[in-house]
Amino acid sequence: MGKGIPLDDQDRIPWLCNLHDILLRDVASGQHVVLACSALKKMYRDILTQGKDGAALKCEESEKEAKRAEMQLLVVHLSGSFEVISGRLLKRKGHFMPPELLRSQFETLEPPAAPENFIQISVDKNVSEIIAKIMETLKMK
After folding, report:
1. What pLDDT is recorded for position 6?
2. Collapsing DSSP states into helix, strand and coil, what is residue 122?
3. What's the rounded Cα separation, in Å, for the pair 29 and 13?
4. Residue 127: pLDDT over 50
5. What is the pLDDT of residues 6-51, one digit of tens each?
6. Between residues 12 and 53, which one has the greater pLDDT?
7. Alpha-carbon span 66 to 78, nearest angstrom
8. Assigned superfamily of 1-71
9. Which pathway does this polypeptide act in (predicted)?
10. Coil, helix or strand for 85?
11. Among 61, 29, 65, 32, which residue's Cα sits nearest to residue 47?
């Protein structure tokens, strides 16, 4: 991405499998985990929770471990218009993703939908409002 080339599924899937394995290990040890990443497609979010079952490639963790630690993923979908997000991206200095790739991100995006476990929050809210909404949702779970 730093070179201005969007990642494709073959680039993302091994990375997502690795994240799945880390999440599984941490959840199995009793930790609560917050992960921030651009899981733009439903398939990507499935890989985070299901590992190899959600991907054409194999993740490292075994079926036995996957059954031992049930992972429940709450997707926090921060939604905003292309114009708002583009404006914010243009203000960033030294970020790995060049603004020219934003269009491809919007084209790839498959917003979460039922039956996925998600909340959608507008990026027009301030950070404290966003955090309050996330915390409120987590308390209800």
Report:
1. 72
2. strand
3. 24
4. yes
5. 778 888 888 899 999 999 899 889 888 899 988 999 999 999 988 8
6. 12
7. 28
8. P-loop containing nucleotide triphosphate hydrolases (3.40.50.300)
9. Carbohydrate acid metabolism; D-gluconate degradation
10. helix
11. 61
Domain at 74-140: CATH architecture = 3-Layer(aba) Sandwich (3.40)
Closest residue by Cα to residue 2 from 107, 90, 100: 100
pLDDT of residue 58 exceeding 70: no
Alpha helices in the chain (DSSP H): 9-28, 42-50, 63-68, 82-91, 102-108, 127-140
8 A C-beta contact, residue 112 and residue 118: yes
Considering only CA atoms, which of 21, 90, 87, 85 is closest in space to residue 55?
Answer: 21
In this structure, the dihedral spanned by the alpha carbons of residues 48, 127, 133 and 101, taken in order and rounded to 10 degrees, is -40
